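Can't attach files on this board, so I'm pasting raw text. These are the components:
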Amino acid sequence: MIKELDVLGTFARDRDNLIPIFQAEQAKSGYLSAEFMESVADYLGISLSSTCGVATFYTQFKFSRPGDHKVKVCLGTACYVRGGTKICDEVSHQLKIQAGEVTPDYKFSLEGVACFGSCAQSPVVVVDRKVYGKMNAKKVKNVLKEYA
Ligand code: FES
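---
Top answer:
Structure tokens for the assembled complex are below.
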């Protein structure tokens, strides 16, 4: 049975809309849930395995719920040589999760990523879209407090 989902209602039942539907849902919800994938398959008349096969082919799509606040620690070269891994370890310690995980309350998710293009500010942490430069372990706690 097809559930009424906002995103699906904005697209015609055309298989060519599969990727745009995924992109719209991810922009809205931050990920593609199992329930959403089933609804897409029903809506477009495609098997669930084909639907999932297409989605998993593209690395841009996420399949688990992210945290309300996405903490990204840069591990690019400039940040790495200036202590990026120590910053990542401190964020991990403060949030009690590893990179790629989400806190149990879904408040934060943590990712280690490549260069943000702010190397002059290295080491860099980005929370949601806000960039924090010249980071050190002591600053991590204060940055995270802003979102607690
Ligand atoms: S290497 Fe971290 S911002 Fe460029």
